[in-house]
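Can't attach files on this board, so I'm pasting raw text. These are the components:
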Amino acid sequence: QVQLQESGPGLVKPAETLSLTCTVSGGSLNSYYWSWIRQPPGKGLEWIGYIYYSGNTDFNPSLKSRVTISVDTSKNQVSMSLSSVTAADTAIYYCARDLDGMDVWGQGTKVTVSS
Amino acid sequence: QSVLTQPPSASGTPGQRVTFSCSGGSSNIGRNIVNWYQQFPGTAPKLLIWRNTQRPSGVPDRFSGSKSGTSASLAISGLQSEDEADYYCSVWDDSQNGWVFGGGTKLTVL
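---
Top answer:
Structure tokens for the assembled complex are below.
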């Protein structure tokens, strides 16, 4: 069965770029969208954006100017970067397989923005 | 402020039937499918209801979804203590050209 695993630094300094990778195992990236979602401490879910396996992307308008999502089919990985981070970007970041809804989720990775 | 409105909390006793509402608009629920997610503390969300009414494999038939106009509902029948969790609705919003989530409803089983 498909499994997703997020990885990346747990601590990022303000104004720097947050970079995360989602490694997909047990399945292919093909024919799916791959979403990134975040959840600030004690708060609800926020969709960041997604990428189709072919490379097409869409982003949350509130984050669009700061977000990049890319795919590496040879490594079965999806990557997300968020620039110019502030404390408001502190959250658990999830990647998820997206087929009219997020049916497979990674366990999430906690990112704290602090100097 | 979420595009989708959910009551922040709900409660019920074991065996009861509880429902959760999700209110949206013409650019989201009014024209697109609604999904529901269940999240236990410290864990990733899990897809509970897909495409308005469908249950992914492994989801008990105690859980059901419906949609009417610009609102959607999730119902749990035969409430169990292990159903205590947060529940989120989500839909594609054509105005924002992206997925939006409700603020979530925290279910307490008394």
